[in-house]
């Protein structure tokens, strides 16, 4: 079993609590994504699981073993860093094999494991090249290969695609998902990119200021956010938030949320606004405007004609309602 359990885990730096009592269970063979803005604590959690950061309180289990005081090399994990951390003077073959050589694995086994990893990652023809002769995507695959040959219980990945250009990131997202399906082991993946989280994770942990805001499937996170933070963080463009008084007396005293794609031209609640700017995105366009003091957007089909003034409407079934003070979702 390669499940990972965190029980009331805390991390305190210089009397400041950065991780505040996190409880989380990551299932065996699950692809779990930790997502949140910079400074939310996601990388700190990953490093505590790896043993690279000491925990201030709580318990961490990998499989059935409590690992609070277990050295990183004995936790049976593999860590893939944001910077590929490859040795520039070594070939791809030597980089992938390095960890195994340090463990005194015999040469025949090392070569077999390197060849297997290279085949999985489509690196066979590059084994005798050095990192400077590779593209960014190829270097990231080498870093993944170095992790694969160790056959760990758990893969930990800290923003591994952030140094790649947009097109390569999309390609590598699908490659990492395929890798997870092939290896059938537990992946814990950190990113600040909510699109990355939605497209890759079996489940997503949304973090803010050291607290878990919601843990759920991508579909549930998007369609049923539990609070204002999750609703605003997940989705592009982000959810529109409007004071209830501006929308209708029915929603008075609350904050109303509407996804941009739900701002339509034939619903029950009518809205009129002046267009600020329009962005064309090929098959669709994003229209930005204000409703009262709220900055809003609508995602419309590219062929829709938009003038300076826009008339939109909302179906009440597409409205999210939040408590203004606590931020918690209100289910009517």
Question: Explain this structure to me?
Answer:
Strand 4 and strand 5 (65-66) form a beta hairpin. Helix content is 27%, strand content 33%. A 6-stranded mixed beta sheet has the order 6-7-8-3-9-10, with helices on both faces. The chain has a 4-stranded antiparallel beta sheet with strand order 2-1-4-5, covered by helices on one side. A 4-stranded antiparallel beta sheet has the order 11-12-17-18. Helix 2 (92-102) crosses helix 3. The chain has helices at residues 42-50, 92-102, 107-120, 136-148, 166-183, 194-200, 218-223, 228-233, 244-247, and strands spanning 4-13, 16-26, 31-35, 57-62, 65-66, 77-80, 154-158, 186-191, 203-208, 211-216, 240-243, 254-258, 269-280, 284-291, 294-301, 309-314, 320-323, 329-330. It is built from 9 helices and 18 strands. The chain has 332 residues and is an alpha+beta fold. The protein is globular and about 75 Å long.
Strand order of the largest sheet: 6-7-8-3-9-10
Written as H for each helix and E for each strand, in order along the chain, the element string is EEEHEEEHHHEHEHEEHHEHEEEEEEE
Helix content: 25-40%
What oligomeric assembly is this protein in?
single chain
Helix count equals: 9
- Which stretches are low in confidence, meaning pLDDT under 50 for 5 or more residues running? none
How far is the N terminus from the C terminus?
Answer: 41 Å
Residues in β-strands, percent: 25-35%
Shape type? globular
Q: How many beta-strand runs?
A: 18
Structural class: alpha+beta
| Mean pLDDT score | 92
Q: Give the biggest beta sheet.
A: 6 strands, mixed
Query: What is the radius of gyration computed over CA atoms, rounded to a whole number of angstroms?
Result: 23 Å
């Amino acid at each position: 079993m390669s499940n990972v359990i965190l029980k009331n885990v805390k991390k305190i730096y210089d009397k400041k609590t950065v991780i505040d009592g996190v409880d989380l269970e990551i299932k065996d063979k699950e692809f779990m994504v930790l997502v949140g803005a910079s400074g939310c604590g996601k990388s700190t959690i990953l490093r505590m699981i790896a043993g690279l950061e000491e925990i201030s309180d709580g318990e961490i289990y990998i499989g059935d073993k409590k690992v609070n005081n277990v050295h990183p090399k004995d936790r049976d994990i593999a860590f893939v860093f944001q910077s590929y951390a490859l040795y520039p003077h070594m070939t791809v073959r030597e980089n992938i094999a390095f960890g195994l050589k340090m463990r005194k694995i015999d040469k025949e086994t090392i070569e077999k494991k390197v060849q297997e990893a290279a085949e999985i990652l489509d690196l066979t023809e590059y084994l005798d090249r050095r990192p400077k002769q590779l593209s960014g995507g190829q270097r990231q695959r080498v870093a993944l290969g170095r992790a694969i040959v160790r056959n760990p219980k758990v893969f930990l990945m800290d923003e591994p695609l952030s140094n790649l250009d947009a097109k390569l990131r999309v390609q590598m997202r699908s490659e990492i998902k395929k890798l997870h399906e092939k290896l059938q082991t537990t992946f814990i993946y950190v990113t600040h990119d909510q699109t990355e989280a939605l497209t890759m994770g079996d489940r997503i942990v949304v973090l803010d200021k050291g607290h878990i805001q919601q843990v759920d499937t991508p579909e549930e996170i998007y369609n049923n956010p539990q609070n204002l933070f999750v609703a605003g963080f997940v989705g592009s463009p982000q959810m529109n938030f409007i004071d209830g008084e501006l929308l209708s007396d029915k929603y008075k005293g609350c904050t109303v949320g509407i996804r941009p794609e739900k701002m339509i031209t034939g619903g029950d609640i009518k809205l009129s606004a002046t267009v600020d700017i329009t962005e064309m995105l090929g098959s669709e366009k994003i229209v930005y405007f204000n409703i009262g003091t709220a900055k809003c957007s609508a995602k419309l089909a590219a062929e829709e004609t938009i003038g300076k003034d826009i008339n939109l409407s909302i179906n009440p079934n597409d409205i999210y309602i939040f408590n203004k003070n606590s931020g918690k979702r209100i289910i009517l």
